[in-house]
Every structure is written in C-alpha cells, then in structure tokens.
Amino acid sequence: MANKVRRAIHLVCSATVALALLLLLGAGHGTVPALGKALVPGGGIWASSSAQTTARTETLTLPELDEPVRVSFTAEGYASIEARTDHDLFLAQGYVTARLRLTQLDLQRRMGQGRLSELVGAAGVKSDTFELSLGLLRTAHARWAATPPDSASGRALTAYAAGVNSWIGTLEKTGEWPTIYGLTGVRPRPWTPIDTLVVQGVLTQQMNFNTIPLDYALLHRSLGRELTEAWFPVQAPTTQRPYDPGPYRALPPAPLTVPNANAADPDAPPAAPAGTSTAPSSAHEGIALPDTVRQLDFNSNAWAANGPKVAGGGAMLAGDPHLQTTLPSYWFQLSLRSPGYRVAGGTLPGVPGVLAGHNEHISWSLTNAQTVGTLYYREKLSPDRPDSYYWDGAWRPMEKAHYTIPVRGGATKNLTVDLTVHGPMMTVLGQRVSVNWMGNYAHNDLDALLAANRAHDFASFRRALRDWKAPALNFVYADDRGHIGTVLAGDVPQTPKGSRPWLPLSGTGAEDVVGTIPYDALPRAYDPPGHLVASTNQRPAGPDYPYFLGTTMNFDPGYRQAAIERFHTDRGALRTEDYTTLHNDVTDDLAVRLVPALLAALDDEKLTGRQRAARDLLADWNHTMDSDSPAASVWWTFLDSYLHAVFEPWWDEKKVPADKDRWILDLDRSPIPLREALEHWTLDDPDNAAFTPPDGPHRDAPQVMRAAFRTAVADLTRELGPRPSTWTWGKLHTREIPSITGAPGLGYEPYADDGSPWTVDAAGGDLNSSYGPSFRLIARWTGPGAGTAVAIYPGGQSDTPTSAWYDNLVPLWRDETYLPLRPPERPADTAATWSLRTGD
Description:
This protein is of the alpha+beta class.
C-alpha cells in the first residue's frame, strides 16, 4: 500500500513539475525560448510509452543482433540477459539499460562532455566550463583511439553503443521521448563508445579528483608550515589498521606507459620570442568547482572472511560502496550470461560488464583506495610571454583547446583551455596551476574490468586488475575454494625524492612525475592468518611502506575498520544474516574511545539538572547512532562543539580561508585529520598546546571538553527543547535520496535515520545526508561452484518517476531486506520476458 501511495505522489509531482514547465516553455520567458514543437499533441511530452515505464512480455526486433537473446525480469525489475554470443550480450545490455535509464545515460554523458547547458540552460555553464577545462572528453577520445577494435573492450563498447542506439532509434520513430526531451525540444544524440568512456570518466572524477594540494597550500599560507604539518600530517598519530602490514617490496617506479591525454606535446618547438604571443585566453579565468565534479565524501566498506570465521567453512564477502544516493541510482543491477560471461551484480549505466558482483567462481566488491591521484603544478610564467611557460630548460608555447558551449535559451559561450606538459591550466581555489590527474591518462580500464568478470581464481583476478589504472581502488575478493584477498589496483604517481606532492609542485621539470608504484609493490593481502580482510578507505599499508600513498587528508581514520574487526571477533562463525546486521551497524567507534574521557572530565563537576541528565544519557549509552537515541545527539553535538572550541580560535586568528569550496578546511565538515588529532591529544597528550587559543589562557583537554559539553547541552536545548530524553538522533539526522534532475518531489523525501560518517552504515557529513551505502552485496561460498548471493540498493531500475520500478527498492533497503542476486531461472521468478530477435 505504501508503495502505491508513493507512486501516486510521484505521478502528481511529475504532473505538477511538467505543468509548471509547460506554462514556462510553451510561451517562453526571458532567455527561455518557446518550445512549441514539444507541446504538439501525440508527441513531445504528451507521449508516454508504457515500454519506458514497465516491462511486459513481448517480442522485439534488434537488427544488429547475431542470434536471438532472452531478457527476463523479476517483479522488482532485476533483469537477466542470456545471449549466445558475447557481442549480443553487450548489445542487449546497452539496449536494456537505455530502455530503463535513457535520461540518466544522457545526463551523465552531457555532464562529462560539457554539454549540460544545451539541455538545462545557464544552470549548466559552471559544470560545462569545468569539465571542458579538465578534459574528460579529450581523454575519452584518446582512449578510444588507443583501443584495438578487436580487443574485448573494443568489441564490448561497439556492441553496447549499438544496443543503446537501437532504443534511441525506436524513440525517433514513435516520438515517445522521456519528458525532459519533450519539454526542451532537445534530443539525445546517438551513443558512441566515446560516450561510454566519458561516463566512466565521470565516476572516476567523482571518486578521485580532489584539491588536497591546493588546500595544503592555503593552510601553509595561513597556519604556517609547523602547525599544518602537526595538524594535517602525512602519517596519522593514532593507531592505524592497514590490511597489508608488510613486509614490503621496494621496486623502482613503473613508467607511465600511456600519455596524459590533456597535456601539451613535450616535443613541441620552444616558444617564439616575446612580443609574438596572443592575448591571454579565457582559460585564465577562475574555474568554479561544482560539488558534482569532485570527491567530497568517501566512505565504503568491503570485507571477506574464511575458515573458522564462517559458519560451515568456505568464504563469505560483503561490500557496500558509498556514493551519493540518487534516483535513479549509480547502479543498475543485471545478470549477464553468454559463452564468455556468467556474471551478476551492479553495473554502471553506460558501461559494459559488472563493476561489483560475482561469477561462477569468485565474488568481489570495491572501495576507494583514497591514494594520491591529483597533482598540481605551478608553472613558471612571464608577463612578456603570456601564452608560454618554462619547462625543461626552455620556454614552451601552451597548446590551445577551443570549445563552444551551447546554452539553451541563452548566448553560446566560448572557452579556450591552455595545455602544458602537465595538463590543463586552471585557476582553482584562487590558485593558477596546471592539473596532472591520473584520470586524464589514455588507459584501457574496461579491458581490466571485463577480464576480472571472467576470472576464476585469485591469480587470474589479480592478473586482470594489473591493467586497472584509475581510479585507484581496493578490490576485496572471495571465491568458491574458500580463499579471500584484497588488491589495490591503480596508478599512484611518484615524484622525485625530496618533493612534497601534497603541495603544488614546481612546473619547471624538476618535480615531474617519475612513474607510479609498481603493481607488484602495491598493498595486497591473500588468506591472512586472521581469516579476515577488510577495506574501509583506511591507509592500506603501514608507516614503513616505501612509497608515498597520500596524507591524513586522504585516508579514513579507521573507526569503521575497528567496528568490523570487533564484530568478527565478538560474533564467532558468521552467516549471511550476520553480514546483513554488520552492513547496518551504526556503532560509532570514536565515541567508544572518547566518551569515557568525557565522562571522566565531567566527574565531580558541578552540573545543572539538564546537564546531569545529558551526562547520564552518555553513561548508559551503547555508542550506537540509532535514530531513537538521545545520547547519539548529545555525542554528535558535543564532538562538533569540542572541535570548534579547540580549532576555531586558531582559524579566526590565522584567517584560514574555509568556505564551501575549500571544504577540507571547513570546521563544520570536521576534517578527518583534526578528528584524529583530537582523539590523540585527548587520550595521549591532554596538555597539547593546541588546546590553548592564541594569546589566550592555558587550557587542557578536560577543561575544553567540559566547556564544549555545556555548549552542546545549550545548543540542544535551543533546538530540541528542555528535556534531554527527547533529544533523539532522528530529530537532527535525516537521509534523503534526491532526483538527479533536482526536481522537487521526484526524490525520496528526508526521513529520520541512523548512522553518521564514522559508522559502518555511513552517512555524509551533513545532518541531512544524501550519501551512504549505494549498493549492498553479500556472497556466500560453500564449495566449488556452489554459492549464493544477495544484494539491494536504494533506488529502482527505472529512471521514470511514474514507473513501478522507480524507487521500489528503497523500502527494502531501509528495512534491511535483500533480494537474490541470480538469474530468474524458475517461472515463479519471472515477471516478464523480452524475446529479442534478429532482423533476418
């Protein structure tokens, strides 16, 4: 009943949004032109093909197929594709994905190509300018040019594009376009392999592109080097839990074997003498950083156990990559069967194959490795040579990339991007630099992914991932022979000894990348003696690892890791349902460590009745961030007050430039290194000088904790009323799942929920979070070829709000209910079947 009500709400909201847009777009307004063609009865927005919103049993003709293909659907919308050739498998994957997710496919590629403005108008210009400057489209062209047509990825990309275009071709004939195209009069272009590579690049960027070196530079300017290195160190002061404890191999850096697709030709002739250059180009202007184009939050979990930790033996794996939760989701769940593939799991719409899942013999999930992937170079420039830079002993001309940005309802924008040997020149966070990002190299990661889909043991899985380059990921593994492991795969750039890659580097050539960490020296684990491997974005290796991986700004402090390890110790031999419990665990391990110190600081302290009641809530608390827990609210508010009480006087005195663009420096987001510093000082160095504000009276940790606790109680009283027993966490903390279009009413509205950024069931740093476990997977192996898998994600298979499959999986995800991850093999499992036939 609830689902029917929700679908009715979406239908009403869709109609309301459409009506408002009709009134605007029918007549035009300001810079928005009239779109009469979109309003023609029988076409445009009036068309609503039932095939777009539901799946019914039917026979369809796809002339590009070699052999017939069967596609079956469960009642929940999960699709299984059975094909007689690998070509037909990927063609059908493209077709099925396009039928259910065409709007998402087009919006994702438009974002990466810098063509959002063509559809959404001026609101897309900021994103388009950034993407064209960074160069995902340039990289995609380079990658496709370097892809052999007869390679696994070359064939898959071509077939997938043909499948997407088969559905676009059908819409061109029927005119039954999704609403956004009927309203705007804009149509999706035919899909190409380059579009797939752009979409792949978008996810890489959202996971791996960041501004950490520029943030460090801002900290050096304000806090100074000494405080910056003490408070944002390379190595954390707290105990870490790497999954690869060593010993480590020290090998020479591996050369980057493919070119940076966004770099100038280093063999270009030196620049012409001064006076012959043109005027500075528009690329010299500041580049804004939309939140959609960079890594903002990072939390993911993946773990695997074997031997005595698994009931009945064998191996078991669980994963839950944490991303923005949206409608539609990042994920599209499929089972794929052909002569070369028998794989099921979460796919990335627009990309062939399965990103996280299982085949007949192995299962895997992934987490963000968090290693350094974005370097910035300060080029040597001269006002006498405005279009040149000094590198390797000579002045070089900057290459130019010219673009036009069509803006629906507005004037076309022109953009010129300057390119150096390090990458595109951009002004980011007020600093003019060139960007050397690992996502801009012409790698072929899809070949690696498809090889991993076909792997049958750890050796073949690890061999497949040798060619995975960006983003750097931790792949956690379990197989039907009872083995488990973890592999870090991806390029981790290395600069000359003595350089500091966490800061902007010299562009003269002295600090250029000398290579990457060799694959055989990257952190990994296989069948460890503790029978558990776990990856939670923590630093994967110990302090004696011989290569630079990143700083405390990169890696998670390990609170989720500690909770996962403790769960495996406390529970003994585990079953699938135990991993369901662990997926949804909301124990805050930082609270486990610090609340006793807070209670000790409050001992013998004269407290008001309300403060005493709040203190007693913490004393009786089990450290879980349950939505009905008032103690969770006290803890969260206290920690925020504690962090501000310690660092805000320094931020104000030193004028640290913290705002929403410089998010790593923003105290409201509780930067990871500062949380680790507070933990370390509170427990091990309570008289640290940081507790005493600049030019202020001496303070120690207990004094600051007591003041912060009083502030927290006062803040909660103002916000939630005078009775601490009513300060439940759900009154402060909510989740929502917004629509990717941003249209109000088309998302899953905010609701009170459990969790925090530091719990296994994680949420984002904002109290109203749209971030968290985006795809939960559990695989259980009991013997050779014998296993089961379940999965769930917060969304639905369709991107059409009126579809029964738009958000039908959200209530299951909220209720900790998982669905079998398998092809529908019994008639009872099959709700609809598409028989895809050739054109013969």
